[in-house]
Amino acid sequence: MNFLKKSIFAGVLPCAVASGQGLYSIAPNDDEASSSLPLTYIVGASLGYDDNPTPLTDSDEGSLYASGFVQANWTSVTPQTTWDVFARLGVRYYFDDFESSDADSTNFDARVGVNFTHRFSERLRFSSRNLLAYEQEPDYDYGLSNDRRTGDYFRYSSDNSVGYRWSDRLGTQTGIQFSGVQYQDLDNSDYSQVAFRHDFRYRMSPATVVTAGYKYAIVDLDSGNDSTSHYLTGGIEHRISPESAIVLRAGAQITDPDNGDSRTRPFLEAALKSSLTSQLSTNLFVRYSNESWNQSLLSDNGRQTFEQSQTFRLGGKATYALNPQVSLFGGVNYILTNYDDQIIGADGDGSESLLNLNVGGSYQLSSNLYLTGSYNFTTSISDFDGRDYDRNRFQLGVQATF
After folding, report:
1. Domain ranges of the chain
2. 190 in helix, strand or coil?
3. Where does this protein have coiled-coil stretches (predicted)?
């Protein structure tokens, strides 16, 4: 394990999913593991303070909390087949009861990720990226939920594709993705999506690939406003260096909801991965789209449901190794959503923005023991009643690897 990987191991690995995924990984196989990892365990425990544990209620109660987790990772890479598997189980206990809400003082979370790639030949490969998660806090890097709602939820994603290289320059990628969210304590909030896609890929140079693609998505909402979407995109994938790459896709999204008129809107997604130095690693993503699954929210005036939810998402994260013992990490997510053409509710059309910041670091106490600390700030500014809030979280802990 080299200097950079060793020094940031504790700060990054416990938060990882199998080979990344999410909006940071939008190119085919760009998150595929490059080397094997024996079965590795990470355990951690921490104490923290949350000044607004239930931000979407009338409560402004803060509370100390204790949390712990155990995680296992295993990766196998052979010339023909790659397996990348992880599982994580965590618990958080708030010492104070939430008298003004129905939120539980004890929260559990679990994640399982499995990535599989099989190369049938030099021309043909199959890839499957899968994630199951049971949690309460939203993961903004996936774009599935914008807020922390009262109660736990289950989310899933399975992205399966076949890639074939027809010639030295021309290839295709064909795939199907299943994804969705099921809320435990909220009625009419679940959704599921099935998306079919086909991309043409043409290699302009050893470092550059241009793409042209089509995707058809079917979204089923408990709230009743199901929809279909067509995506027509063109893009480019360019490897800046062996450690750095940029991916860009842009085009049109045509959405046809059951309860409304068909709309054509611009679509954009991009990602950048870079190791600027041997000590500094950065990742960025941006996406602008109509999120057909994110058209309903809860305010003080009840449920608000809309035909359109045009959403801009920006995310970034970085790690920096000061020395073999000390590493720093940070991240930011910004989400701006415009809700238009209200179907249900009293608030009318409006917009909502959310900013989430996270900074922290780790210190290596011994060969497998780390001291960690972090600070997280979240703020929401909304045109809908009862959805403005600020939230601060501080945490100190220890982690060990085996």
Report:
1. 3-401
2. coil
3. none
